[in-house]
Design a protein that fits this description.
Elements: H1 9-23, H2 32-42, H3 48-57, E1 59-68, H4 74-91, E2 94-100, E3 103-110, H5 112-124, E4 128-139, E5 150-153, H6 156-167, E6 175-177, H7 180-189, E7 194-197
Parallel strand pairs: 2-5, 6-7
Antiparallel strand pairs: 1-3, 1-4, 2-3
Helix pairs in contact: 2-3, 6-7
């Protein structure tokens, strides 16, 4: 009887290292949630079927920031939000849109093809420039399930601190954030960085 493959932690570790090296620098490279599942597979907590099942049940997220080509008025921001809410409700996309001193910060979540199609439109939208993808890939659940598009205006220094923490290879700890929307982003994309919500 043949010996089952990938029975030891060492074998699992080698298989994961090979898969990660093979996909490095390609769109198939594992993202945050996929890396978490691979770590559980390496440790023997999950088998390949369980990893596959969890990925099938996952939601797709894109987290990006961009610069406004021209600072929008309050009326233009309200119109953008209303348009987003209507469209996203039809396509079962939820998320968060923050605006701060000429910068948009947004998380989109839903079915992968819907989220990717919307993100393609955003990147081509003349209201946006310098569009930077912070994170893209599957996640175990929606962060903003109750919002077709949550919205907030936040202070520029707080946005900068949060983006710096999220983008850092080793996020700082003890970061204080007063805005609840930014707190959610920190908890999801830089676990352990924030210490408290002050408001």
């Amino acid at each position: 009887m043949p010996t089952p493959l990938l029975t030891s932690i060492a074998q699992r570790r080698r298989a994961v290292a090979f898969a990660v090296a093979l996909t490095s620098g390609t769109p198939l490279a594992p993202q945050r949630y996929e890396r978490d599942l691979l770590a559980l597979f390496e440790a023997g907590v999950l088998d390949l079927d369980e990893v596959s099942e969890l990925l099938d049940q996952s939601i797709y997220q894109i987290f990006y920031h961009s610069r406004a080509t021209q600072p929008p008025s309050e009326q233009e921001l309200r119109a953008l939000l209303e348009q987003s809410e209507r469209r996203n409700a039809r396509h079962r996309i939820t998320g968060l849109l923050l605006y701060s001193a000429g910068r948009y910060v947004q998380v989109l979540e839903g079915a992968q093809h819907e989220v990717e199609a919307l993100y393609t439109r955003i990147r081509c939208d003349p209201r946006h420039q310098q569009v930077v993808t912070v994170s893209e890939g599957p996640s175990p659940k929606r962060l903003f399930a109750d919002w077709n598009m949550g919205f907030g205006s936040v202070a520029a220094p707080e946005v900068d601190r949060v983006l710096d923490a999220v983008l850092a290879p080793h996020p700082p700890t003890g970061l204080r954030v007063e805005n609840a929307h930014l707190q959610v982003l920190l908890e999801a994309f830089a676990p352990g960085a924030a210490t408290t919500v002050c408001s």
